[in-house]
């Protein structure tokens, strides 16, 4: 229940107290998808097909839940700024307006995705063999959209007030519930991919209830009825659009990658999709905690931007970048040495395993540079420079998308995996240059000194 003191806590201690719980929360949150895929991949006789089907649904599901990030990050950044300005009344209004936005979005998205799911599966790399399993998983998951958006979106408002451990706990409740129900529904009751989806929805329901109860009764800024404001909603979307675009475009790129694998993989399309599903699951073990570091410490930048404290902002950037780089260095070494151990947890298929193992090693070639890019882009968003963070996000995604489409066409389908490190290294260099050239004058123009 302890709330972090943004004003007086030493910066190293403050960064660690926010980054580590957020890292753990993201890591545990990844268990939603990874555990589903591990159990599904081990289903007798049809495990590899089911794994590919869940892989097709993965980016669609992420795209769906990214709308919670749109409102959650946008609203929580603004809330942290208001706390830095000692304006609790406005912070309360932001929380309520964000809640209403997520309710409306969840209703619209549920109906929209249910109506489009048949086309989405085939548009985004599905085949006749994969369709029955993908359709079952996506239908059940979509019906739980409300719980997914609330548990993801509102959790940012807990972190934004400094309750990083409580935010971590809400994710842990859902993730461990998901593991238990996966074991019961898939292993014991033999329900298959339907069991994976049902377990996820139940887990998200419990996380949602926990978050709502905490914000309603325990947090400093409580969730209660306030005046609705279209202008506030627009500003929330403006602040949240860049991180939303990062997550949503990641999903779109993965969808395009599945399409390219089916197109150029010939009769091995489903095998390549199974392999890249495993590789992407591993890569989440890097990008998830890294996102936890960058987004978990975002309230620090927002708070001190609101209080116009340049010294604290500089100190925070140095510490957060160092921590992110160290984490990625450790993960790079592990990836190069032990990726085969991870692959074996998902599948024992002789054709899938070597492709997945190679994909993991290639994916990780650019992660040291990526650590810097993540922190700078999220930090820039925390400083309310939405235009720059949006440009930097789009820059990376367009490079990734271009490489995903061109590499298999000119260098063969097996080289599509190089799209990841090429985009990571290129975007990191551009981000560092823009940060050095633009941010000092930007802060000065906003009175931060």
UniProtKB/TrEMBL annotation:
Q: Domain of life here?
A: Bacteria
Q: Could you state one GO cellular component term attached to this entry?
A: plasma membrane
Q: Does the keyword tRNA processing apply?
A: no
Q: How does it sit in the membrane?
A: Multi-pass membrane protein
Identify the InterPro entries for this entry: MATE_fam (IPR002528), MATE_MepA-like (IPR045070), MATE_MepA_subfamily (IPR051327), MdtK-like (IPR048279)
The answer to whether the entry has keyword Cell membrane is yes
From the record, give the transmembrane residue ranges: 12-34, 46-73, 94-116, 136-158, 165-186, 192-215, 236-259, 271-293, 319-347, 359-377, 398-419, 425-443
One GO molecular-function entry = antiporter activity
Signal peptide coordinates: none
Give the family, as the similarity comment puts it.
Belongs to the multi antimicrobial extrusion (MATE) (TC 2.A.66.1) family. MepA subfamily.
Protein name per UniProt:
Multidrug export protein MepA
Task: State the organism named in the record.
Answer: Holdemanella biformis DSM 3989
Give the lineage.
Answer: Bacteria, Bacillati, Bacillota, Erysipelotrichia, Erysipelotrichales
